[in-house]
Specification:
Structural class: alpha/beta
Distance between the termini: 38 Å
Pfam families: 2-Hacid_dh, 2-Hacid_dh_C
Organism: Paenibacillus farraposensis
Helix content: 25-40%
InterPro entries: D-isomer_2_OHA_DH_cat_dom (IPR006139), D-isomer_DH_CS1 (IPR029752), D-isomer_DH_NAD-bd (IPR006140), D-LDH-like (IPR058205), NAD(P)-bd_dom_sf (IPR036291)
Number of helices: 12
Order of helices and strands: EHEEHEHHHEHEHHEHEHEHEH
Family: Belongs to the D-isomer specific 2-hydroxyacid dehydrogenase family.
Protein name: 2-hydroxyacid dehydrogenase
Largest sheet: 6 strands, parallel
Strand content: 5-15%
């Protein structure tokens, strides 16, 4: 029986790990993310299952190699938390979950956008302090009279486009790859045209290191329609926090919401005292602009359906590799040069 240690399993997730364990794997569920101080818990296991922000670096992978672990799998789409060079060197196999419920991220994006668009965070915060005055900051347009731009119209972006269309909004898209399914739902346009025309822009772009770092930069923001709203629920590395802060302070950008930050492991899944300054002063300043800035802690996939998809696919990955020595979701590892 395969013995798997699963890191980053929140308390309310444990029942799903057990209930979906149709292959009867022997599970060890650890609530903490993988760090250098708890890697030794993997001793006497055959495999590791990670979540985002687990530190599958060379140091921890070296320990795993010493424990005889062959499989370092992740229940996420992204794999940037895993040192693939080290895995290749140590002969470990890596697998991921290529997709899960697109509605999870799309619904969060839509919710954040509408909270900013209708100023609901501003109003409910005021009401919580017993201030029920209707002022100019609660005044808004209606989404059916506005245009929404989706950058990255894959499964998630297309799902969000359909949700916004259901509200009556005019929706346009930009993507390097334009699927036939997406073309049936929305028209595609150039990036510059989308930025100039959209009242709300939602980003669903995969992070490609060295290719689209800080894609959302000063130039990108300057091309956006004045008074528009920006949502990023994809990857933090795509956004230049300082440029976004500057656009907000100049009132070129009305609102910003994000589920991600660059170097977010320094922030997310931690609790800071209210008087503590955050490690990143720019993030600190962004948070101080609430309710014009809304931040969720990389929780887009934190739904029953998405979690179930992740667990089931991860278990299938382990089963496939054991029974067929392969899996459709194996991650290609770098080929190391022989010196």
């Amino acid at each position: 029986m395969l013995k798997i240690i699963c890191y980053g399993v929140r308390s309310y997730e444990k029942q799903y790990f057990h209930n979906l364990n149709k292959y009867n794997f022997q599970l060890t569920l650890v609530e903490e993310l993988l760090t250098s101080s708890n890697a030794e818990l993997a001793q006497d296991h055959d495999a590791v299952l990670l979540r985002g922000n687990c530190a599958a670096n060379r140091e921890n992978l070296t320990k795993f190699k010493g424990y005889g672990i062959q499989y370092v799998f992740t229940r996420t789409v992204g794999i940037n938390h895993i040192d693939l060079d080290a895995c290749s060197e140590f002969g470990m196999k890596v697998a991921r979950v290529p997709s899960y419920s697109p509605n999870a991220i799309a619904e969060l994006s839509l919710t954040l956008a509408m909270m900013l668009f209708r100023h609901t965070a501003y109003m409910t915060t005021k009401s919580s302090f017993k201030n029920f005055i209707v002022d100019e900051h609660t005044f808004s347009k209606e989404i059916h009279n506005c245009k929404v731009g989706i950058i990255g119209v894959g499964r998630i972006g297309l799902t969000e486009a359909k949700l916004f269309k259901g509200l009556g909004a005019s929706v346009i898209g930009y993507d390097v790859y334009q699927s036939d399914a997406a073309k049936e739902v929305i028209p595609f346009t150039t990036l510059d045209k989308l930025l100039a025309e959209s009242d709300v822009i939602s980003v669903h772009v995969p992070y490609l290191p060295g290719q689209n770092d800080n894609m959302i930069n000063a130039s990108f923001l300057a091309k956006m329609k004045k008074g528009s709203i920006l949502i990023n629920t994809s990857r933090g590395e795509l956004q230049d926090n300082q440029a976004i802060l500057d656009a907000l302070l100049s009132n070129h950008l009305e609102g910003f919401a994000t589920d991600v930050f660059p170097k977010e492991d320094e922030l997310f899944f931690r609790s800071f005292d209210p008087w503590q300054m955050l490690p990143d002063p720019t993030v600190q300043k962004l948070l101080e602009l609430y309710p014009r800035v809304l931040v969720t802690p990389h929780a887009g996939s934190n739904t029953v359906t998405a979690l179930s998809n992740m667990i089931e696919t991860s278990y299938d990955n382990f089963h496939d590799i054991l029974t067929t020595q392969s899996s459709d979701n194996l991650v290609p590892l770098p080929v190391l040069s022989i010196k």
